[in-house]
Design brief:
The chain is α/β, with parallel strands linked by helices. About 20% of the residues lie in helices and about 25% in strands. The protein has a single domain, classed as Metal-dependent hydrolases (TIM Barrel). Strands 7-6-5-4-3-2-1-8-9 form a nine-stranded mixed β-sheet. Strand 6, helix 3 and strand 7 form a beta-alpha-beta unit.
């Protein structure tokens, strides 16, 4: 089993974040085995960035006209900001597209438009209200999609809220993509 926070932002790359790598490593719960750095519009790994015993993966948060989504398993960012084009780009390049905070009142959210797109999963987000996450949970059930969990941390106090539980050991990004596609994951509260 592996528990991964699927949605973390670092201040070294996201101007909206105030979370340094030192704060991340010092504040992260011992229950979490890994993190996904999902900075806005930045896909490249951070050089010489590793935590002792902590799995570190890279995805990206992409702002579309319709709402925000998380992408994992791609090497290049799409050129379009139209959600269907972005999702097609992700799928054509072997990745997965996750609807981020779909019903958040304070984020760029798809809301009910989530039903009109070919997502691979839906996120429960540690930075939004309980009833907003409940709407996301209901949408995932209707769409027969798995749920993932992410803190969406931009500050140290936002860590350790939601993460994603995988029954299998996750050793690489390919494992993570495969397990989400196979719906072998679930959100957990930390």
């Amino acid at each position: 089993m592996t528990i991964i926070d699927m949605h973390v932002h670092l201040s070294s790359r996201s101007p909206c974040s105030n979370l340094s790598s030192t704060q991340l490593f010092n504040s992260l719960s011992h229950k979490i085995d890994g993190i996904c750095i999902t900075d806005h519009g930045i896909l490249s790994p951070i050089r010489n960035f590793h935590g002792e015993g902590l799995l570190i993966f890279y995805g990206v948060e992409i702002t579309c006209f319709e709402g925000d989504l998380l992408a994992y398993g791609i090497k290049f960012l799409p050129q379009s900001k139209k959600a269907d084009h972005v999702i097609n780009h992700i799928h054509e390049n072997g990745g997965i597209a996750i609807c981020a905070h779909p019903y958040s009142a304070r984020h760029n959210a798809f809301e009910d438009d989530v039903f009109n797109h070919d997502f691979d999963a839906i996120e429960l987000n540690g930075g939004i209200k309980k009833h907003e996450n409940e709407l996301a949970r209901k949408a995932a059930k209707i769409m027969d999609l798995p749920l993932i969990g992410g803190s969406d941390a931009h500050f140290p106090h936002q860590l350790n809220t939601y993460a994603t539980f995988f029954d299998k050991k996750i050793l690489g990004l390919g494992d993570l993509v495969r397990e989400i596609k196979a719906k072998r994951c679930r959100p957990v509260r930390i």
